[in-house]
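User: Look at the shape:
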Amino acid sequence: MLSRSPLDRAEELRKDSDALTAGWPTASVLRVDPVGRVPVADGAVAMIPATDVADAPPTDAVFLGRAEGRHLWAVPVESLGGETTDLRSFGDVLTESSAGVVVTAVALLNWHRSARFSARDGSPTRLSAAGWSRVSEATGHEEWPRSDPAIIVLVHDGADRVLLARQPTWPERRMSVLAGFVEAGESLETCVAREVREEVGLGVTDIDYLGSQPWPFPRSIMIGFAARADPDASLAFTDGEIAEARWFHRSEVEAALAAGDWAASTSAPLLLPGSISIARAMLESWVARP
């Protein structure tokens, strides 16, 4: 759901201050609070005219792109009045254009909040390129937004069973596929094999790429894979990140998908991630496979 984005990012405008200033009077602005909430009205994301914010782009505003010839910006705010929501609770009903705007805004502003000092020299940094970089005030060194890559892998037996797991902090019955961050110097495929081995003690083969999804919680990108493992092999939870893991039949996963998600009020024996998660899309695709 969060991968949908027809947004024209208009990269050529990011350092064109004249064009950005000229577009400001007709631009729209999205306000985002420190935990990623945005205003909503009548069931849709609410943007406001840029001139309601300032006469020109504020120094902390980030340029998101343009839609229908209009510039789109986001600004950080400490609090929001009225009705608000966030991507976890609202992402599945956003239009494609709204999804692209909100995901980009939240990801960028999350990075800015954690990049106020240079990773190279420790000096304060200032926003530049309309929010798409920060520059060290001491040396002029430029740094760009970071996305932390994480793999997410659907482990199957090559037939009708899939491995699902529960983290120690999750309630009983709430399960999902395996995931983990890519380490320095590691390929994505190597990370898949390492994470599965560390989390449940299994070796995998037939590693296939499935797709990706931005996950701005706070600034990750989830890179989806499928991999095959032996369901008769013993499971071992060696790194402490998994409290429970079991093999489920396709029919059990199909029933769980029909029952809702983690937030559903149901006595179903298995609860699966919500619709904005790439994990759910992976499981839905696996269930629907001929």
